[in-house]
Amino acid sequence: MPLTLSHCTPTDAPAFTTCVLATYTLQPRHITTYASVPYAAQHAHFTAVFAAGIESQAHPTSSLESHYLKVVDDATGEWVAYAIWQYLPRGYVPEEDRFTEVKEGEEGGLEGVNGAMLREMAEKTRRVRGEHEGRRGAHWLVLYLLGTHPKHERRGAASMLIRWAFPYADAGGKRCYVDGSSVGYALYKRCGFSVDVGEISVDLDKYGSHGFGVVRWVAMMREPVEKPEAEQSASREMVFEG
Q1: What is the pLDDT of residues 174-226, one digit of tens each?
Q2: Of 60, 75, 80, nearest in space to 20 by CA
Q3: Rounded Cα–Cα distance for residues 148 and 71 (Å)
Q4: 91 has which bridge partners?
Q5: Burial 107-119 (b: 16+ CB within 10 A, else e)
């Protein structure tokens, strides 16, 4: 059945959250972080976060341009997958990385969150993202979030979302980055993230008794591919249509 990729609209925030939680609630990092938080509270919290992010698409700034994307099954209307791509014209600035922002106490008033684990993860993520010279003071694109609903795996939706930004990146000579999990590492490699530039690791057993051990993410980079000018212009228009 055909799949359609498009930008999210503000009314998509609840469905975006439902798809994200369907993907993440069984993953070790999420369980360790949110084991004490009821599903309803998680859903309400992340819906508010994603609603603000989706709204920001219409208001790009000199330091940030966001793209919240969805893939939907044309026949059923079901959400298949989602992604968040961001373009950072000024390069990576740790203090502006709201995806690793951890507030003191419960995260944004979400009671029961494992704040200590979030803080370690945030510190290590910011360090890895800021260490590579390609991310400082240079235009670059980052894939912040990617997931496929469990019932729709192996339909090619994740690859569609990964490759969505490549025409724009190639047209502008921009590098792409992702912090790839062990589950997604092979897929990112196949899609062109050929250079490993760092690693993030967290011992989850320090923060819970689930026995997950150490989990790792690999910071990966894709170099832009040079194309003829005519093809670059067409790619640029295609990416930002609608």
Answers
A1: 889 998 888 899 999 999 999 898 899 999 999 987 889 999 999 999 999 98
A2: 80
A3: 9
A4: 136
A5: beebeebbbebbe
